[in-house]
Specification:
The protein is 25% helix and 29% strand. The protein has a five-stranded parallel beta sheet with strand order 3-2-1-7-19. A five-stranded parallel beta sheet has the order 9-16-10-11-12, with helices on one face. A five-stranded antiparallel beta sheet has the order 22-23-26-25-24. The two termini are 41 Å apart.
Amino acid sequence: MVVIGAGQGGLQLAESLRTEGWTGPIRLFGEERFAPYNRPPLSKALICGAVEADNLIIRGADFFTKKGIDLSTGTRVAAIDRELREVVLADGTRVAYEGLALATGSRARTLPLPGAELDGVVVLRTLDDALDIERRLATVDSVAVVGGGFIGLEVASSARKLGREVTVIEAVPRLMARAVSEPVSAWYADLHERHGVRLMLSTGVTGFSGVDGRVAAVETSRGPVAAELVVVGVGVVPDDDLARACGLDCDRGVIVDDYSRTSDPAIVALGDCTARRMLDGSLLRLESVQNAIEQAKSGAAWLMGKERRFTATPWFWSDQYDVKLQMAGLSAGQDRAVTLGAPAEARFSILYWREGRFVACDSINRPSDHMAARKLLDRGTDLTADEAADPAFDLAARARAA
């Protein structure tokens, strides 16, 4: 079995193959120089200096020896030969496979604007990116973050914790617009402003200017914003190049079903490089640890001749300052919401319905609500908005009774 991509999903697939009973060789190829590591802390604890890079490594070398997983870091797979069932490494070496898993992840989206090549205009996707930002943060006073999504706001939070001046520049009128509702966006805007972040919403970026090859300002539709470091956090692009080149069906990622199967029955795909075909024919892209882990388990089962459908409710989280946002389900298109708890006390949840069906929950510093909502959503519980709006309503108790 061959796994391309040594992130958390690729590692999980290799582990799951052993759990499913595969006793043959497993080759795990990673283009980065590091063994599989936890990616979420990169924008938070690592760039703040709260943890060392070594602490992010998921498994030590002895684990791979014990499990019989041949890990090759710093190794790029250049092509997939589906006819011969071989992958071709960058040095020309060919490795045969019985089953193949694509866990190639995604790349940080860049901005092809004037000045984007200046020193100090950076992105955050890999551990090396984070180490570079950590080093730069130690030598600058002002930081501009382009993009008001999770990564951008987590970087802003980390930079403010270090005492840096921070400006967040977002093209649309609210923060985290793709992921959360307007009330949550507004609450987080207030949170960041209270921590001293300058927010520039509905503001376009037209380029970057510098002095002696180093960035000095972000050029925006509202004028220049001085910055010694610019972190561009405007989303990711699925890394489906290998899949496209070998003829697999792709559309905003490698197309898979609920079993992680691609258009080639000998190949599965998982994580950020994928787009899952839903029952109604639409494509769903989820960029989360949970998605990668669950697709890896489904993919390993399929490569072993079994079926393990991924049906769990999507969930995500974001840590900013001392606030933990946990999301269960997908709130896009919601038409009714009920708030539990006290937003003024930074402990509340918002539950969402779409056409009368309970579809999602955003929780701020209320982990018990998050876990209860996941249980109810997984079970398809018929929770109504009127029921939740009752002052005596207890979400955790409702979940226990479900």
